[in-house]
Design goal:
The complex is a heterodimer. By secondary structure, chain A is mostly helical. Chain A has helices at residues 18-42, 47-56, 59-90, 101-114, 129-153, 155-161, 166-195, 201-204, 209-215, 217-224, 234-265, 330-341, 343-346, 359-364, 381-387, 398-409; strands at residues 4-6, 11-14, 206-208. In chain A, a hairpin with a 4-residue loop joins β1 and β2. The longest helix of chain A has 32 residues, at 59-90. Chain A starts with a strand and ends in a 6-residue tail after the last helix. Among the domains of chain B are: 37-118 and 146-156, no CATH class; 158-209, no CATH class; 328-355. Chain B is built from 20 helices and 2 strands. Chain B has a two-stranded antiparallel ribbon. In chain B, a hairpin with a 5-residue loop joins β1 and β2 (63-65). In chain B, α9 runs antiparallel to α10 (174-182), α10 crosses α11 (184-192) and α15 (244-250) packs across α16 (252-263). The termini of chain B are far apart. The chains are: A mainly alpha, B mainly alpha. Chains A and B meet through α2, α4, α6 and α7 of A and α4, α5, α8, α9 and α10 of B.
């Protein structure tokens, strides 16, 4: 459909009409979104993917975007099928996208040229082998991705027809094809269309004469030779359109029905499933919980784990020489020690009238008189009681006793 | 000094040094005193409380036995290290005792267990964060306190033997423990005190037991199971695969869960975790016909979430198995195809593009030279 148009200045050649350019742009956008939302799903454990899921607010959102883009791509693909059919059936445009013997020849010539064994590249026609390969790869890819995507989207329905293994296989193929497609676009397409020579004809629709000479010389020669397809008589065109219309309608109906399946037919997994027959959680064996001393477990007597007690506080214990600091005070050492060890009894409850909560209270002593005699540890009733084994249930270590003694000897200071 | 005498001196110097160190070490390591602790309060208290008929009636009408068996104390971890009656019964220091303030037996337990904090503060604090404490805070009197699990006068090591733990939990959770004992884990524990299988506390924690029905627990569950099931040494002992977790992580279910775990641990998700298929307390060996994932039951297990799944469905689940020619030939060849076709196509592209770049560069260099 290339026509020669005279623009002011240089000659330009229409390469893609508006319909083709729009298809390209929509396909390009949906492909990019599918790639960006698909690859994180293929490699979900990579930190990049995790960040990506976070940006989109969850893997569900990413899937939703992926599915939506897939539908857009499918619509473009169906449109393309209808368009190609129109060109072939109605307009009888030569089928210029199918690879032919010529293309093999061009590859051979190009390789020789790149190796420096030939002066010129092959003389490409309307579409070079590079373009044809990409177009066929796109058709193959769209078919594989559409088919396997459908299977994964609707696994229950798929497995009414296919064996179970089809689903994991579809997943493998979908991922494999995705990686292939994305990398092929980056290597092949980006090089040929963006890097080698920035070709914007897919957006502007036009090529200059110079570009035509370089990239489609055979087509240019045809145009220059004035070879143009004969115009189709209106009556013939009308007749062909009548044949085309029902075919297009059938195809459209089939695809629409397919979309319906794609989008809303199957509920693969239910929300909030009742997963477990729930066991009653609280079913006590006896009315009262573990009774104090009567639980008899048929167990071997537990061996005593640590034979040597750490708490060793009886009066006749040989007081080990604890390192004694120059002077202990109530506020720094003794108060906290009593708070930790003694207040359970000699706290607010003041067992035996003795309250060790504060310095003042402690110095008042208990019901049987003073407990501490400053300056004379050996005769302090507390020390006498402990060392005489009269306070056996308290757990003061020998070092702690030594501390108290040192404090008493130093005058039992508060600060 | 000749080298010979020097060596001899050095030898004796080392001998002396080593023996000094050893002697001082033995002094430090050996207990300062290994005398048995005195049992005087026990003796004193048991002079009355050793009477099996001693009891009192609480205001609630319950009869409270005041008998303390010497035998229980003998086996208790506390008595053996000299911790005696007054350590816990700190409100009683003389006879006659102060009047009993409790209305019921339960009130008595609820009052006394707080003395455990004195020595076991870190475990005590953990229990305050537990689900049991939440139940207590909500007004449930029966929510367990320290003594309900550990006992009062007969506190013993809680995990000797291991199966004792399930006995303890069984007091309140008897249905669950019964189910657990029939599971592959519980049966092994009850049979020969298996040291590897999980007991209640392995999964639920010890003192800070959390509600296992939360999304956080759910999302962390695969890792919990992986703690043992991804350990090759442990699994090798029982002929089990330790790849199950890695393969799960790559599955549809696992991908969802790992994403949730990383980002939204508090949001509920339905994607299957281990227990959804294998069961919770009723986990059985896959070969066991009663197992939820036994071939015969697998479809109905899948149907919990995929209610309309047909008979082919279970084959779509490749299990926790790597792709293999024997198990999944079609999948194997699809993988193989992309594993070889993709690199082939991409390398061809790369080589072709490089050829063009080289030629274009050569041309440019040539044309720039006149």
């Amino acid at each position: 459909m290339t026509k020669e148009t005279r623009a002011p200045g240089a000659a330009t050649y229409v390469r893609f009409d508006i319909v083709q350019r729009l298809q390209h742009i929509i396909f390009l956008i949906s492909f990019t979104i599918l790639g960006f939302t698909g690859l994180p799903q293929k490699f979900p454990l990579s930190p990049i993917s995790a960040g990506f899921f976070k940006i989109f607010g969850g893997i569900e959102t990413v899937r939703l975007i992926h599915h939506t883009s897939a539908i857009v791509m499918m619509i473009v693909s169906v449109f393309h099928v209808l368009e190609v059919l129109y060109r072939v059936l109605v307009l009888r445009t030569p089928i210029s996208m199918i690879p032919w013997i010529n293309d093999l020849l061009h590859v051979y010539e190009d390789v020789l040229y790149y190796l420096g064994l030939r002066k010129h590249k092959g003389y490409y026609g309307r579409y070079s082998y590079a373009e044809k390969a990409e177009y066929l790869a796109l058709i193959w890819g769209t078919l594989v991705m559409g088919l396997t995507g459908f299977m994964m989207w609707n696994p229950l329905s798929t497995l009414r027809i296919l064996p179970g293994e089809a689903i994991p296989a579809a997943k493998a193929a979908h991922g494999g094809e995705a990686v292939l497609a994305v990398l092929a676009i980056i290597i092949w397409h980006f090089y040929h269309v963006h890097i080698k020579h920035l070709n914007l004809s897919m957006f502007t629709g036009k090529l200059s004469r110079e570009e035509m000479e370089h990239e489609h010389p055979a087509e240019l020669a045809q145009i220059d030779a004035g070879k143009k397809p004969d115009p189709i008589p209106p009556a013939v065109l009308r007749k062909r359109q009548y044949i085309y219309a029902p075919i297009a309608i059938v195809i459209l109906a089939l695809f629409s029905y397919g979309f319906y399946f794609f989008v809303g037919y199957e509920t693969t997994a239910v929300v909030n499933p009742q997963l477990q027959p729930t066991l009653p959680v609280y079913v006590p064996q006896t009315a009262t919980l573990r009774p104090t001393a009567t639980v008899t477990l048929t167990l071997t007597p537990a061996p005593t784990a640590t034979p040597v007690p750490a708490t060793e506080a009886t009066g006749d214990a040989t007081a080990t020489e604890a390192p004694v600091a120059a002077a202990f005070t109530w506020d720094v050492e003794i108060g906290p020690l009593f708070a930790q060890k003694c207040l359970m009894c000699h706290g607010a409850s003041a067992s035996g009238g003795l309250n060790l909560s504060t310095y003042a209270d402690a110095m008042k002593g208990g019901a049987s008189g003073l407990v501490f005699t400053p300056g004379d540890a050996a005769n302090s009733p507390m020390i006498v009681k402990f060392e005489g084994g009269k306070h056996p249930y308290a757990a003061l270590l020998a070092e702690e006793i030594a501390k108290v003694k040192a404090w008493l000897d130093a005058g039992a200071l508060e600060k | 000094m000749t080298p010979r005498t020097f060596h001899r001196q050095l030898f004796w110097l080392i001998v002396a040094g080593v023996s000094t160190v050893l002697v001082s070490l033995s002094l430090v390591v050996s207990p300062a005193s290994a005398k048995p602790p005195t049992q005087e309060t026990v003796k004193y208290c048991l002079s009355c409380h050793g009477n099996p008929t001693l009891s009192t009636t609480l205001p609630s009408g319950e009869t409270l036995s005041l008998y303390i068996a010497q035998d229980d104390l003998n086996h208790s971890v506390h008595s053996n290290v000299g911790i005696e009656c007054e350590a816990c019964h700190n409100d009683i220091s003389e006879y006659p005792h102060p009047a009993i303030q409790f209305q019921t037996k339960r009130e008595l337990s609820l009052s006394y267990y707080q003395t455990c904090e004195k020595c076991h503060s870190s475990n005590y604090e953990k229990t305050q964060d537990s689900m049991h404490a939440q139940a207590a805070a909500a007004g449930n009197e029966n929510a367990p306190v320290c003594t309900d699990c550990h006992g009062a006068h007969d506190v013993r090591p809680p995990d000797e033997p291991r199966s004792l733990i399930s006995v303890t939990c069984e007091q309140c959770h008897s249905e669950i423990v019964k189910t657990y004992r029939e599971s592959v884990h519980g049966a092994a524990l009850m049979k020969d005190e298996n040291p590897d299988v999980p007991v209640c506390t392995t999964c639920h924690g010890v003192h800070n037991i959390q509600d296992p029905r939360t999304s956080q627990f759910r999302v962390a569950e695969p890792e919990l199971c992986a703690g043992c099931h991804a350990d090759p040494q442990l699994m090798g002992k029982y002929g089990l695969s330790s790849d199950v977790y890695d393969i799960y992580k790559r599955s549809w279910h696992g991908v969802d869960v790992s994403v949730y775990k990383a980002r939204w641990p508090t949001i509920w998700h339905d994607s299957a975790v281990c227990s959804d298929c294998h069961g919770i307390h009723d986990i059985r060996s896959t070969g066991d016909p009663a197992s939820k994932v036994n071939e015969k039951n697998l479809l109905s297990t899948c149907q919990q979430c995929h209610p309309t799944a047909g008979p082919n469905w279970t084959d779509a689940w490749t299990g926790h198995n790597e792709i293999s020619l024997e198990r999944t030939p079609f999948l194997f060849y699809v993988e193989k195809f992309y594993g070889s076709f993709t690199p082939f196509v991409l390398w061809a592209c790369v080589i072709y593009v490089i050829l063009q770049i080289v030629r274009a560069t050569v041309d440019r260099v040539r044309s720039s030279r006149p």
